[in-house]
């Protein structure tokens, strides 16, 4: 009955949004409350679960999303994004721009948290789409496919890093095997899949639409790249420092503070305020007006993400993840496929890739010694399953829909299918590697 109640809860959410045309934030609140009653959460705890879910998810994301929107707005309005887009187009040409986007997402996605990479790089895809009059979805999907794969497969991202520790795997080997699977998976779910999306209509947020400027008005190529990618540089350097500095060192707390994604984005925005703003003769009031516009435009995105957090918390507090996993672990199948399937089902029901991965790990971990399976491949199998079919209960689904401003139907046809391709071909890659390891 548990799975049936989860499906009913998700059906209520879908009907409220698609049929009743309710605002997604209100739909999330209503479906979260319904899910709480259906799944047996005590009535006096439902409200606190909703509030805790919203607060927890926003607490993790609000600084990153807001600072990313501000940085993206300034990068767009100053002409830096146009300069970067021009450079990429000259190097790769319009014919191969989707491969350029995949490469950018892969390189940036390794050290960058998914949400940071999303809000940092999506404006670049929009600029390319506006300037060369091609579909924003066609340009953006390869970028997001690469970011998704790094988020689910590769340490030091939270879920794969935690799985490495739980299964006593080798992080270096996991990273190496992960790269072998990542490259073909990104190619299939990114540029190859995107070639079928050229006619998808998208009207991205106006906050990232900057007027095309004359070449003489654009910032230098070095200034543009360094400022736009400063968060990447900061995260890579602080991660390296964290690995090589003693925890007892007096510098360790400072490095830990600076390496926090929220702090990285704040520092990046402050530096960009000078390099792309004040240095280029923008007044402080002009820059702050741009930041205000950016914040207004993402207000609804923040509410929708909070709503997704509420529903996820109801599912977590009701214990639905554990019930589903316990019911499936007795199935007779290849352990890598079993781990993938458990994770995929929890992901579809709960919405969170991290929750799905870590919940499965808790069930599978005691069985690893009897499974006769490579723990590094087990990490990757679960990572692939954690990306399966993102839909209404996933914050990433709504970030994509609202940033790209596409319909629910087209979001499923593009984003959800792309995530499914990543999950399926990720598993295929794991099983092929298992034949040789």
UniProtKB/TrEMBL annotation:
<feature type="transmembrane region" description="Helical">
    <location>
        <begin position="251"/>
        <end position="277"/>
    </location>
</feature>
<feature type="transmembrane region" description="Helical">
    <location>
        <begin position="336"/>
        <end position="365"/>
    </location>
</feature>
<feature type="transmembrane region" description="Helical">
    <location>
        <begin position="174"/>
        <end position="197"/>
    </location>
</feature>
<feature type="transmembrane region" description="Helical">
    <location>
        <begin position="218"/>
        <end position="245"/>
    </location>
</feature>
<feature type="transmembrane region" description="Helical">
    <location>
        <begin position="26"/>
        <end position="43"/>
    </location>
</feature>
<comment type="similarity">
    <text>Belongs to the GntP permease family.</text>
</comment>
<feature type="transmembrane region" description="Helical">
    <location>
        <begin position="134"/>
        <end position="154"/>
    </location>
</feature>
<keyword id="KW-0812">Transmembrane</keyword>
<dbReference type="GO" id="GO:0015128">
    <property type="term" value="F:gluconate transmembrane transporter activity"/>
</dbReference>
<feature type="transmembrane region" description="Helical">
    <location>
        <begin position="377"/>
        <end position="400"/>
    </location>
</feature>
<dbReference type="Pfam" id="PF02447">
    <property type="entry name" value="GntP_permease"/>
</dbReference>
<feature type="transmembrane region" description="Helical">
    <location>
        <begin position="55"/>
        <end position="76"/>
    </location>
</feature>
<protein>
    <submittedName>
        <fullName>Gnt-I system high-affinity gluconate transporter</fullName>
    </submittedName>
</protein>
<dbReference type="GO" id="GO:0005886">
    <property type="term" value="C:plasma membrane"/>
</dbReference>
<dbReference type="InterPro" id="IPR003474">
    <property type="entry name" value="Glcn_transporter"/>
</dbReference>
<keyword id="KW-0813">Transport</keyword>
<feature type="transmembrane region" description="Helical">
    <location>
        <begin position="5"/>
        <end position="20"/>
    </location>
</feature>
<keyword id="KW-0472">Membrane</keyword>
<keyword id="KW-1133">Transmembrane helix</keyword>
<feature type="transmembrane region" description="Helical">
    <location>
        <begin position="412"/>
        <end position="436"/>
    </location>
</feature>
<keyword id="KW-1003">Cell membrane</keyword>
<feature type="transmembrane region" description="Helical">
    <location>
        <begin position="96"/>
        <end position="122"/>
    </location>
</feature>
<feature type="transmembrane region" description="Helical">
    <location>
        <begin position="298"/>
        <end position="316"/>
    </location>
</feature>
